[in-house]
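Format notes (please read before filing issues)

Several people have asked whether sequences and structure tokens are stored in separate files. They are not. Every record keeps both together, in the order shown below: the sequence lines, then the token lines. Line labels are part of the format and must not be stripped during preprocessing.
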Amino acid sequence: MKHETFAPPEYKEGLEADAVCGQCGHVNPEGTLICKACGNNLRDQRMLRMAADQILDADNEPNERSVFMVRAGSVLAILFILWMGLNVGNITSMLTSAENSYESDGTATTNPGVFWTGASSATYDNMHSTLSGKLPSAGDAENARMNVMPANSLSAGNYVLFEQRGTGMRYTGAATIQIDGNIWRYTAALLDGIEIRGEASITEQILTSQWNQAGALYQGEYFAVTGTAEMRPDGSVILDGESNNSTQIFRAVAYPYSAL
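Then the structure lines:
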């Protein structure tokens, strides 16, 4: 039986990238990796486009059911990636949407500002001051993302944060984690002015912050937030969360960064 195979797009050391951004339409100078208008990753966009082209423009006709299923599954996977990029909200929309999803059940804090004014605020102030004073450049963050090393456990340290935007990943800020006994404290400084502080518990390598364990500060207003962080085999960390101000779920990916 003849099997049709699809090889991944060839990667070249020259860091080839699309010039025209598929997210905003901006035409970038040749060799630009990050769209200068919206921050879309143009190399990731090119790799996805090439993979889709290879699948859809294969030379041989799909005359066997197995070949059809390979193509259909690959196309669906690409469509799913695109759908996630277009429909999973960014962190800013999580805090600015008018639709409220949060109802106090007596256990969630009504004062997320406690992480800025409470007993542990000095610890968080020091963490945030160190982090925000040395935010990585977009180039340094992208280098950390592309050179992530496999890992099997979460650890204290610094991370760069990326959000899925269209067909690429957009650098959105940085975070730091400290461990004090059984308490995992973290703070994040985002490029759009959002600051997140909180503590988390860890179970089976998944960090979890309940509503009363984290808060966000944006444009002078505090928001209660909740979320999880889970290590992936490649060394990156998937972040999922929501705020008390919106039904919008946000997803970001964190990559270890050692230069802070």
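For reference, the curators noted about this record: The beta strands are 157-165, 168-180, 183-190, 195-203, 206-209, 214-218, 221-231, 237-243, 250-256. Confidence is low (pLDDT under 50) at residues 1-14, 68-88, 98-109.
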